[in-house]
Automatic annotation (TrEMBL), chain A:
Pfam family, one: CheC
Hydrolase in keyword set: yes
Protein name: Chemotaxis protein CheC
Keywords tagged on the record: Chemotaxis, Hydrolase
Domain called CheC-like protein: residue spans: 11-45, 111-145
TrEMBL record, chain B:
Catalytic activity, EC: 3.5.1.44
Family according to the record: Belongs to the CheD family.
Gene3D superfamilies named among the record's database cross-references: 3.30.1330.200
Record gene name: cheD
Lineage: Bacteria, Bacillati, Bacillota, Bacilli, Bacillales
Organism: Salibacterium lacus
Name of the protein this chain belongs to: Probable chemoreceptor glutamine deamidase CheD
Amino acid sequence: MTDINHIQPVHLDALQEAGNIGAGNAATALSQLLNKKIDLHVPSVRMVDFQAMQAIAGGEEEVVAAAFLRITGEAPGSMFFILQKEEAEELAYTLTGRKVNIIDDSFDELAASALRELGNILAGAYLSALADFTGLSMQPSVPSLAVDMAGAVISEGLLEVSTKGDHAIVIDTEMEEAESSDSDAVTGQFFLLPDPKAFEKIFKSLGVEWS
Amino acid sequence: MTKLKEDQVIKVGMADWKTAEAPEKLRTSGLGSCVGVVIYEESRKIAAMAHIMLPDSSMAGTRSLQRAKFADTALEDVLAWFQEKGCRCHRLQAKLAGGAQMFSFSEGSEMMRIGPRNSEAVKMFLEHNGIPVKGEDTGGSKGRTIEFNIMDSSLFIRTVSQGKTII
């Protein structure tokens, strides 16, 4: 049975490689959409406990906009696209031309839908590259968007993992505008949390031994 | 005069529970579908706070389960602590907050309904053990940070979009 505690550095390396393949494809899709060059890279693949996972998006109580989706198929999991408040508002402005305050009760539906669609495009590009690379089927659900405390939204993605153990493996993707020193350059985070039962299939497909 | 432990806030992490006595406060942040439960004995000014993730330990896929993660096992342990302290169940009271549904999906997955199930499981446990619920702010789709002041048994709740309330 898949036990997350058996994860070795070689497994994390393999996941990082897979993550980079997905990130590369997502960067292309995003650059086209925003009409500027966006870099996505996977700085780390980590095994973290729940406390660390809650803090990973900038602090438990930090307000973030999060698009969350479930992956079904041979390698199920959860995926998050997370933007800090200002980044989300900046992106919404780029996509819709509207200035919005995302924690306002009357948070603009067009801006919300633009951010959801952004999550959809990113996830679709990322997962299709990953599926090609691993030969495993992975279908993303339509993303759902929430603007709230990072801890509260992230914990939703930990539920599946939490029935099996106390750690999650997170493929962390950083997103930033290339060649920009501008302080309001686009930055964001993208998390992939494979369900425990997905590990064996993923590693097997990547040619990494799993005992 | 020395001020002992004044304003000391004890932080409770996800899938954990902690105890405190006045004038300490208990706090847990970023509750989404998780439920924060405080059980307290008003007269002796002692309290325990649990940050519960899942409703039932039967959901655990492994034998080495972390008891503080599940409503049934976490609250059993909390009650055992109170009994060790010499408290009787009928003197205990409870308040709870959280159990939201942060995301909505058209295809209904059971995991997405975990927030309401967490609240139900907690309330059922409290009822079984004759512990009255003195205040509750559960459900909805908002994250909550809570802080319990043992001195006056008030539970302070902060949300991003709807501000602060005290129950």
